[in-house]
Amino acid sequence: MTTTGTDHGPAADRSTAVVRTKAELRAQRATMSGTVAVVMTMGSLHQGHLMLVARAREVADHVILTDFVNPLQFGPNEDFDAYPRDIEGDVALVDGMVDLVFAPATEEMHPTIPPMVSVTTNRTGTLYEGASRPGHFDGVATVVTKLLNLTTPHIAVFGRKDAQQLAIVQSLVTDLDLPVRIEAVDIQRESEGLALSSRNLFLSAEGRRHALGLSATIAAAREAAPSLSGVLDALAAAKAGTAEYSADTTALRFDYALALDPATLQPVTSSHRGETLVMLAGWVDGTRLLDAAVVETTAP
Ligand code: PAF
């Protein structure tokens, strides 16, 4: 690892530069020729992030990883202060795999909070995850726009676990004509099924067992497909707490278990056929966890 970098060939088997300021980032970015992909993270990197990095390396000549816990996307009673941070561990994990890590301080990224100008996500940002976390998606859209402006990538790689975020980022790019392609990467799971997330660090061993109700619900929805009513029944049972799981899910409280049209993010109607986005959020021991999958529903 170096604090600044001079070699700007393809990101492979060499030291990763770490920069903390926008000026350093811009200077480093200016030296990159060929295509650039950005992987935006809030740090506490895990295998799921490494899959995003791996995809970025496949599709671009250079990879920039941003590592920033964005205060704009946390509500006043949320876990911003407690959110896990480990910049040194993060850099060690991606050393040699990315060209550059951009890890700014809060004041560097956001000189004023709240900013005088920010991006609003309109109604889509108030639904589902946004209903439980008012302002969350405006905060995400604002920081994503800033990070795109700062890194000027050809491609930005996002995970499918945060399905609503992915849809909103895709709309941000389309609606604001941003010159970047969004590349989506499938959810990575632990061996028992739990979707990888930085927030899993908050779970006790018992909490992890309870959290398995989320991935078990995804599995039940997959099994019920292609029957749309089967998928809806599986989700209703999960939410009502009447689903039969092999895992102990007694302490899992669902916030939502939805079947959505992936194009519009609206709940599917009974006549819907084709791809259905199953989107889940639940609480285990005060930790909010998400899971999602796209299933093909071609029958009633
Ligand atoms: O998905 C995340 O980790 C964050 O929402 C993102 C996209 C890095 C913006 O802060």
UniProtKB/TrEMBL annotation:
Keywords: ATP-binding, Cytoplasm, Ligase, Nucleotide-binding, Pantothenate biosynthesis. Transmembrane segments: none annotated. InterPro entries: Pantoate_ligase, Pantoate_ligase_C, Rossmann-like_a/b/a_fold. It is an enzyme of class 6 (ligase). Its EC number is 6.3.2.1. (R)-pantoate binds at Q73, Q165. Its main location: cytoplasm. SUPFAM superfamilies: Nucleotidylyl transferase. ATP binds at residues 42-49, 159-162, 196-199. NCBIfam families: panC. The reaction proceeds by a bi uni uni bi ping pong mechanism. Catalyzes the condensation of pantoate with beta-alanine in an ATP-dependent reaction via a pantoyl-adenylate intermediate. Homodimer. This is Pantothenate synthetase. It comes from Brachybacterium muris UCD-AY4. The gene is panC.
